[in-house]
From TrEMBL:
It is a multi-pass membrane protein. InterPro entries: AAA+_ATPase, ABC1_TM_dom, ABC1_TM_sf, ABC_transporter-like_ATP-bd, P-loop_NTPase, Type_1_exporter. It is found in: Cell membrane. This is HlyB/MsbA family ABC transporter. The chain crosses the membrane at residues 20-43, 55-76, 130-152, 158-176, 241-266, 278-300. Keywords: ATP-binding, Membrane, Nucleotide-binding, Transmembrane, Transmembrane helix. It comes from Dictyobacter halimunensis.
Length: 587
């Protein structure tokens, strides 16, 4: 899509608000026409008058009233424009985030998180400015057309010189079009690299200190900042250079026009009132002419912003970036989803996987031709050495990675979109490294779920969280900090487990849930989980406690199934599993 096509769709998002905004700012920009005409009448009358009459006072009153009215319009226009800007910015961010949430987890954001933040913050703001500036363009064009018509009636020769600076600025902008794009893109990318580095440093403080790598990290960060400084300096210097060129061009043009006007006044081709009107209008026309040059440069940079935001769509049609959706800025927000009650179709009887494959584009590693079957109420454990493909298998099954090949069947029905299918009430998932937020413990567990005390208490009991809650300063209302910094590794894992247990699901998927748990707590958790009606579980683990409970064990090696069976069968027939069981290998 072209830049103007993006902008046109944004204009149509809130058409009434945009129209009201445009009308208000058109009136604001056109309003100075009236003082100019009043000034013309005032000086023409003053030139021939012998005393101040009531007409002079009327003109002065009208001048004051016009300016006061314009001030009121600017206040109203500013309020409407702020709301309109917020709507445009919010729509762009909403559409980018919606697409990110649709993508498989490993490919949700292309590039670094810092680069994505830059697109959400800087590029969305650039597009917001472009939409708002078109309103000024409408008003400026209306004023300039009317003012030029009035000035043409006074002097055609002098008025024609008004267009010369505009022609020069358009020529300059077109000449450096590519450089404007290149400098703005480099500036944004450098900013994204710095933002991403800040996030990585904050999340790896412990590792940096343990490795005594503070000096290296600081030097690396300084290097990124230096690169950002250079690229932003080039971008800002070019932008300021353009402003300077435009301003000087307009200044030279204004000087030429005033010289011609002075000559016309000397030869009595212009009256004093005509000269006053010309000078008054010329101020606005030249200001708008300079602004038009700046807007042309901004328009080119806005094209770069749309291209950068489009990369977050990752193959989706470009129209999705500016697709119209409600933002719920007023009124009642949509109610959160109620307690999910599984239907008969959601209840798992048999899950069948055939030929599931996925290879990471960069390394070529992954899984190939995976096939297995889960039955209701069974516990299936996936085990293997480090980098054997255990986590990749779970993520490809759940749609967090886009499988290259393979079929998945839920109760005999083919699953078309695993990412949207394997969610509560069908399945729930706890990752190897759970993601917690800087909120209360209860909020981290419930997230979007309504507070059901009985369900929450049962989830906490199953996750063996009661002793930990008793030690927290505010119990469930304790703020656990960014990524659960106030909790131990085992508490983080069990908080994530409680988050999963509080949501009804037919299939529970754990990725090495008990890796940070002591043997006693792990044993108690599995006892409570299987105490009532046994759930269907798919678990990545190397712990003997879990393997001894398993109905089926799948042994992975180099991304393929090496062996499959019960614990007794594998101990008898699988050399790979024997190697793992007796502790000679690493899981």
């Amino acid at each position: 899509m072209k830049t103007y096509q993006y902008l046109w769709r944004l204009f149509r998002y809130r058409p009434l608000l945009y129209t009201l905004n445009a009308v208000l700012w058109a009136i604001i920009h056109v309003a100075p026409l009236v003082p100019g005409l009043l000034a013309q009448q005032f000086f023409n009358r003053l030139q021939s008058a012998t005393q101040i009459s009531n007409a002079f006072w009327l003109i002065i009153v009208l001048l004051v009233a016009t300016e006061l009215g314009r001030v009121c319009l600017i206040l109203c226009g500013g309020t409407v424009d702020s709301l309109h800007r917020f709507s445009i910015n919010g729509l762009l961010k909403r559409n980018m985030l919606a697409r990110i949430l649709e993508r498989p987890g490993a490919h949700a954001v292309p590039g670094s998180p810092g680069e994505a933040i830059s697109r959400f913050r800087d590029d969305a703001r650039q597009a917001e400015d472009a939409v708002s500036w078109t309103l000024d363009s409408i008003g400026s064009i209306c004023f300039s057309i009317i003012a030029i018509v009035i000035m043409l009636r006074i002097s055609v020769t002098i008025t024609l010189f008004v267009f010369m600076p505009l022609v020069c600025m358009v020529a300059v902008t077109q000449a450096i079009h590519k450089r404007l794009e290149r400098y703005r893109r480099a500036s944004r990318e450098a900013t994204g690299a710095v933002t991403s580095a800040i996030g990585e440093i904050f999340s790896s403080v412990q590792g940096i200190k343990v490795a005594a790598a503070e000096t290296h990290v600081v030097e690396h960060f300084q290097g990124l900042n230096e690169q950002r400084r250079r690229t932003m300096l080039r971008d800002r210097t070019l932008e300021q250079l353009l402003d300077s060129i435009f301003g000087n061009t307009v200044g030279l043009g204004t000087g030429m026009i005033l010289i011609l006007a002075a000559q016309a006044l000397h030869t009595h081709q212009l009256s004093i009132g005509d000269l006053a009107l010309f000078i008054y209008y010329l101020t606005f026309v030249t200001e708008y002419t300079q602004w038009a040059g700046t807007f042309l440069a901004h328009y080119i940079q806005t094209g770069v912003a749309f291209q950068r935001m489009d990369t977050l769509l990752q193959g989706a049609p470009a129209e999705r970036l500016v697709a119209h959706h409600p933002l719920y800025l007023r009124g009642t927000l949509p109610a959160p989803s109620p307690n999910i009650v599984p239907s008969e179709q959601d209840q798992l009887t048999v899950l069948k996987v055939e030929g599931l494959s996925y290879r990471y584009p960069d390394s070529g590693r992954g899984i190939t031709g995976i096939g297995f079957q889960l039955r209701q109420g069974s516990l299936t454990v996936i085990t293997g050495r480090i980098a054997s493909g255990k986590t990749t298998l779970l993520q490809a099954l759940l749609g967090l990675l886009p499988g290259d090949e393979g079929e998945i069947y839920w109760n005999g029905q083919a699953v078309q979109d695993a990412a949207s299918f394997f969610v509560p009430p069908r399945s729930a998932y706890t990752a190897q490294i759970p993601r917690l937020f800087s909120a209360t413990l209860q909020e981290n567990i419930l997230l979007d779920q309504p507070h059901n005390p009985a369900r929450l208490q049962k989830a906490l009991h199953t996750a063996v969280m009661e002793p930990d809650i008793a030690t927290l300063e505010n119990g469930l209302e304790t703020i656990i900090g960014s990524r659960g910094v106030k909790l131990s590794g085992g508490q983080i894992q069990r908080t994530a487990a409680a988050r999963m247990f509080v949501r009804p699901a037919s299939l529970l998927v754990f990725d090495d849930l008990s890796s940070a748990l002591d043997i006693e707590t792990e044993h108690l958790l599995w006892e409570r989980l299987f105490q009532d009606q046994p759930p269907t579980c798919l678990v990545v683990s190397h712990r003997k406690t879990v393997l001894q409970r398993a109905d089926q064990i799948i042994v992975l090696k180099d991304g393929q199934i090496e062996a499959r069976g019960t614990l007794a069968e594998l101990l008898e027939n699988s050399e790979e599993f024997q190697y793992l069981w007796h502790g000679a290998g690493n899981f």
